[in-house]
Amino acid sequence: RSDSERRQALLSLFDYFFNRSHKFRLRTVEKLQAVDFDSASAELLAERLRKEAEDRRSAELSQKVVAHVRRKLDEVKDDIERCIASADTALSILVPVFCTDFDEDTTKNSDSTSDPSTAQELQEKQDEVKPAIPVVSYGLDLKYWGEQRSEAPIPRNNADCHRFWRAPEDDDRDLEAGSGKSFVSKPKKKKVQESTVRERLEMDVRALQKAKETELTDVVTISFHTHDYRPHLSFPARRENDCFK
Q1: Best CA proximity match to 212, nearest among 220, 223, 200
Q2: What span, in angstroms and rounded, lies between the C-alpha atoms of 98 and 80?
């Protein structure tokens, strides 16, 4: 008996929960399937009104911007025309117009182009090659186009100009020519002495060679033997002064 009562209680409990869940499902389906057309139409109307108001505000703003730009343009219109006129005048003064009356002829005869002879003449005029540079009767203005300027000479340091300047040296010519600058410094005594000794030796050697050449042209005698025909050169005796000093 106790088992039957317990089983009855469980069945009643399951039946209660099943019915409750089934009702809950039915209510949920009804809520999902139900549509409130009044609220939906009201929301759509509010969205449409908001969009129209936004478009109206943007149109008013764009009209204000356009009116402001037009007002500014009207204010500076006279200045723009004045600047254009001054620029045209300056260009006509600086760059003279080199052209023919071809443009005027074309504008005048635009209505009479049906004639074949007129069309042929216009075609011939168009085929003519115009010079790219205008030919004038006078030469180019060098002051305007730029004149050829000679390079300024590079100042050389001379030993006799100032006692603090160094003597001119052949080894430093390329350096001075590249830099274009001169500086004041004390002369190098050792190098100057070596150069002077070398120059003196070279001068002595040149003098000796020149003296020998002159003596050879005066004293050389050529003697031929009867058998071998070989020339013999007779040189004068060496003098005492033919030595380095």
Answers
A1: 220
A2: 27
Provide the 8-state DSSP code for 138. S
**Higher local confidence (pLDDT), 239 or 92:** 92
pTM passes above 0.85: no
Tokens at residue 44, please?
Answer: 């759509």
Do residues 157 and 172 make contact, with C-beta atoms less than 8 angstroms apart?
no
Token readout for 96 is 């003279």
Q: How far apart are CA 67 and CA 168, in angstroms?
A: 80
Terminal alpha carbon distance of the chain:
162
Which helix (H) or strand (E) segment holds residue 189: the answer is helix 189-219
Domain boundary among 58, 76, 94: 94
Phi, psi (rounded to 5 degrees) for 47:
-65, -40
Among residues 153, 196, 150, 159, which one has the least CA distance to residue 176? 153
Position of tokens 């004293």? 219
Place of tokens 């939906």: 40
The one-letter amino acid code at 37 reads F
Mean pLDDT computed over every residue of the chain: 67
Whether the CA torsion 199, 200, 202, 207 is positive or negative: it is positive
- Quote the DSSP letter at residue 131: P
| Structural domain that includes position 183 | 170-233
**What DSSP character marks residue 51?**
H
Number of domains in the chain: 2
Q: For the segment 152-175, what is each residue's pLDDT rounded down to a tens digit?
A: 777 665 555 555 555 555 445 555
pLDDT exceeds cutoff 80 at 47: yes
Of 94, 110, 143, the one marking the end of a domain is 94
Q: Is 188 a domain residue?
A: yes
C-alpha–C-alpha distance, residues 43 and 40, integer Å: 5
